[in-house]
Amino acid sequence: xxxxxxxxxxxxxxVYRQALAAMGPxxxxxxxxxxxxxxxxxxADRFGDLQGRLYVLEEDLAARGLVPLCTxxxxxxxxxxFVTLTEEAQxxxxxx
Length: 96
Hints:
- The chain has three helices and five strands; from the N terminus they run βαββαβαβ.
- By secondary structure, the protein is an alpha/beta fold.
- The longest helix is centred in the C-terminal third of the chain and has 10 residues.
C-alpha cells in the first residue's frame, strides 16, 4: 500500500487527477495544506470511489476554517494519524 499525499487544491490544480491515475486499489490518499479543500462537499466528488481510503489532515482544515464544511465521506486524521498512515505505507508519494 502506498500513501499519496496531495497538497494542492483540486479547485485550482489538476494534479489530483495524476494522483488518482497513479493509485492502486489498496493505496490511500491524504489531503494536506491547500489540498484539504478536496474534503469540501462541493469538491469531494472529484475523488470518485475512494471510500475508506480518502483522508484529510484535520489541523490544515482547522487552519483554513473549513472543519464545518468537510464531508463525512472523508476520514479526518490529526498529526498522529498522519504519522500512523506513513508508518503503515510501504512508501509515500507527494503530489505538488
